Amino acid sequence: MRCVTYxxxxxxxxxxxxxxxxxxxxxxxxxxxxxxxxxxIVTEAGKVAQAELVIGVGNDxxxxxxxxxxEEPDFADFAVELRRHRLFPRRRLQAVESxxxxxxxxxxxxxxxxxx
Length: 116
Hints:
There is one protein chain. The chain is an alpha+beta fold and 116 residues long. It has one domain. It is built from two helices and five strands. The chain has helices at residues 15-30, 76-83, and strands at 2-6, 9-13, 34-42, 48-56, 61-65. The strands form two sheets. A three-stranded antiparallel β-sheet has the order 2-1-5, with helices on one face. Strands 3-4 form a two-stranded antiparallel sheet. It is elongated, with a radius of gyration of 22 Å.
């Protein structure tokens, strides 16, 4: 579990939500934008609730570890939602040069049926 500090307030959420939020916040700021997002939190009373945040330019978010003895809530779907955000960083495909073994010709015989 993690404590997320935002605008002088601290909320508690899961590691995956906090990590996704931090990454999305940084990506949004890199684009020079701000976005409103909602994350699941655990209140002081131990209830699940939602926190609304504006992330991006000018909005600092801090995530710190928290000792947690209770059962962790399953917020995995919310972390996935944050990672689906249009500004969340995506891995880019990179061109790879062929190696020395890649130069061998492949022989295809389209007239022969394939063996199953």
